[in-house]
Amino acid sequence: MALARYLLRRLVLSVFVVLGVTMLVFTVAQVVPSDPAALYAGPRPTAALIAKARETLHLDAPLPERFLTFAHAMATADFGVSYKSRRAISQDLAVYLPATLELAIFSTGLALLIGIPSGVIAAARRGGLLDRLGGLSSIVAVAMPTFFLAMLLQGVFCQWLGLLPLSGRIGKEFSVIDPVPFVTGFMLIDTALAARFDAFRDAMAHLILPGLTLAAYPAGVAMRLTRSAMIEILERRHILAARALGLSEARILFGHALPNAVGPALTVIGLSFAYALTGAVLVEIVFAWPGLGRYVSEAILSKDFPVIAAAALVVTLCYVAMNLILDMVQALVDPRVALT
Amino acid sequence: MLEVRGLQVVINSDLQVVRKVDLSVPKGTIHGLIGESGCGKTMTGMAILGLLPKGAGLQAGTFTFEGTDLLSGAATLRGRRIALVSQDPAAALNPVLRVGRQMDDVLRTHSNVAKPARRAQAAALLAATGLPDPDRVLNAYPHQLSGGMQQRVVIAQALATGADFLIADEPTTALDVTVGAQVLALLRRLVAQRGLTILMITHDMDVVAEVCDRASVLYAGITVEEGPTEALLRAPRHPYTKALLAALPDARPKGQRLAALEGAIPPPRQIIQGCAFAPRCPMAMPVCATPPPRRTEGERFWLCHLEARDA
Lengths: 340, 311
Ligand SMILES: Nc1ncnc2c1ncn2[C@@H]1O[C@H](COP(=O)(O)OP(=O)(O)OP(=O)(O)O)[C@@H](O)[C@H]1O
Ligand code: SF4
Ligand SMILES: [Mg+2]
Description:
The complex is a heterodimer of chains A (340) and B (311).
Chain A: H1 2-31, H2 36-40, H3 47-56, H4 63-75, H5 89-124, H6 129-143, H7 146-160, H8 172-177, H9 187-193, H10 197-234, H11 237-244, H12 249-257, H13 262-278, H14 281-286, H15 292-301, H16 305-333
Chain B: E1 2-11, E2 15-25, E3 30-34, H1 41-49, E4 56-65, E5 68-69, H2 70-77, E6 82-85, H3 89-92, H4 99-110, H5 115-128, H6 134-138, H7 147-160, E7 165-169, H8 177-194, E8 197-202, H9 205-211, E9 214-219, E10 222-228, H10 229-234, H11 239-246, E11 294-297, E12 300-303
Parallel strand pairs in B: 3-8, 3-9, 6-7, 7-8
Antiparallel strand pairs in B: 1-2, 1-4, 4-5, 9-10, 10-12, 11-12
Helix pairs in contact in B: 4-5, 4-7, 5-7, 7-8
The structure holds adenosine-5'-triphosphate (ATP), iron/sulfur cluster and magnesium ion.
C-alpha cells in the first residue's frame, strides 16, 4: 500500500514537470527574437506571404488562447509542421527518436555493464593494483572528449582492425537493397521482428562504437559511485555476518553487497540516459547517426520553433518516464524506500 | 571441544586488544565469556572465527577445535563447524534481501541439495528456532520482523551452516528482557537437542548465571578466572570476579554506587607488567606489580597473587 502511494506521488510530480516544461517552451518561443511567420513564408517572403503565414499560424490570437492551442496540440502529439522543411514533425520524430532512444538504451546498458562490476572489484581490492588501474581508467573515461574518443575508436576498430562499421545504423544491403520493414524504428527490434538475423547482427555491429563512445562517461561515473557505495556497504555488519556464515567472496560481493548499492546504479542510468538523449550531438555527427540530437541542433540553428518545442517535450517525456521507472525499480529492490 | 591457549591479538602492531586469553570449552556446553566493555570479548570471538578486522593480527596463541589446529584451518571451519550469532540481529541481516533468499544462500553454500528441498530445510530450521509461521517469515524482509524474530532467523542461519559450535556475541543485548530470555531458552534447548556447543559472550552476570555451564572472566584482554559457573558465582576467587558480582543489582543495597567497579580498564596501548587489575583492585599489594601466578583448584583457575584462602 505504501508502495502504491509512493508511486502515485511520483506520478503526480511527473505531470507537473511535464506541464511546467510545456509552459517554459511556449514562453521561450514568445521571447526569442525571431518571426516565425517570416520563416514559414519561405526563403523570399513578401509582405502578403508573411501576413498569410501569420493567419495560418494563428499568431494574432491572444496569448492564453495560443497557449491552449499549443498545449492541446502537444497533448495530442500533433506537433505541426517544421517551418523549414514543411514536413510533419511527428513523421520526423518517428524516425529520429527511436534511433536516439536505441542508442541511449544501448549505451546506458554498456555503461552499467562496464562501470558496475569494475566498481565492485575496485572496492573489493581497495588500494590494490586493480583499484588504482580502475581509478585511472575512470578518470580517462570521464575526461576524454567524446568526439575524440569516437575518432579513436573508429581509427582502431574500423580503419586499423576493420572489425566494425564506420558509421550509420545499418549497412546498405539491409536499408536499400533488401530493406528491413520499418515497424518500431528500433533497428534491433525491427530486424528481429523480420527474422533477419544477418541484419540484426549488422545493426548490433553499428551500435557498438557509438554506444561505447557514449558509455564512457557514465561508465566512469558508475564505477566511482559503485566503488564508494560498496566500500561503505562492505563495512556493514551483515557483510561480516555473511562472511561468518562461510559464503563465498563472489556471492558476498555481487549477491549481498551489490543489491544494497542500487542507488548509484539508478543515478547513473538517469544520468546516462539524459546525456545520450540530447548531449550526443557530436557523437551522432561523427557516426552519421540519424538521431534526435542532430535533428534538433539543425532546428536550433534555423530557429525552427515547432521542431524545438516538439523535441523538448518529447525528450522531457522520455526522461520523466525513465525516472518513474527508476523510482519503481528502486522501491522494488529496496523495500524500505517507499516507507520514507 | 575448543581449546584456546595464550591468545594475543594486536592491531596496528601497538594496540593490545587481546593480551592473553585461555579458554577451554567442552563439547555440548555453554561457556560464558564475561567482562566489561572493551576488554576484548568480541575480538576473541572474531579471532576464533578467523574474521579479525584489517590491521589486526594474531600475535600468539594456539587454537584447537576437536583436534584440528584452527590457525591452519580456520577459513575452512568458519561457517562450517563454527558460526556466529551477533549482538544486533537487525544489522546482521541484509536489509534488501528476503529472509528466504538469505537462508537459501547459506544452505546452498554448505550442501548440494536441490532448491525446493532447500526451501523445506529452511522452513524446518526456522520452525526449530520457534518461529511460528516459517513460510511467512521466508517471504518477509528483515525489517518486517520483530527483533526477537530476527534473532531467531540469525540463529537458524547459523544452524543452516551445519555448525555445531556457535559464538553468540551478546545475543540478547539488543532485545527486550522477555524476548531476550526466550532467545536464551532457545539456545539452551538447541544445546540439549542438537548437542551444540556455545561460546556465550556477555557483560551480564545474569546471563552467565542462567545458561552457562562454565565461564571465563576477561579483564583487559586476559582471562583472569575460569571455572564452572556455579563455583564461580558462589565463591569467586579473583577480586575482579568479585567486583563484577558485587555490581549485580540484587547484590547491593538500592541506590549505592558500585564502588567495586570504579575506574576503567587499561587502554589497549598500555603495556602491562604486573597484574592488569592492580590499579582498581581493593586488595592490591606491592607484589601485584609483578605478573600474578596461575592458581588452580579442581576445574577452575585464576591469576592472582592472593592465596586461595585469602581470596
Ligand atoms: N577495528 C578496531 N581497530 C582498533 N581498535 C579496535 C577495533 N575494534 C575494537 N578495537 C578495540 O579493541 C578493544 C577490544 O574490543 P572488543 O570489541 O573485543 O571489546 P568487547 O569486550 O567485545 O566490548 P563490548 O562489550 O563493548 O562489545 C577495545 O579497546 C576496542 O576499542
Ligand atoms: S594480583 Fe593483586 S592486584 Fe591483581 S587481582 Fe590479585 S590482588 Fe588484586
Ligand atoms: Mg563486543
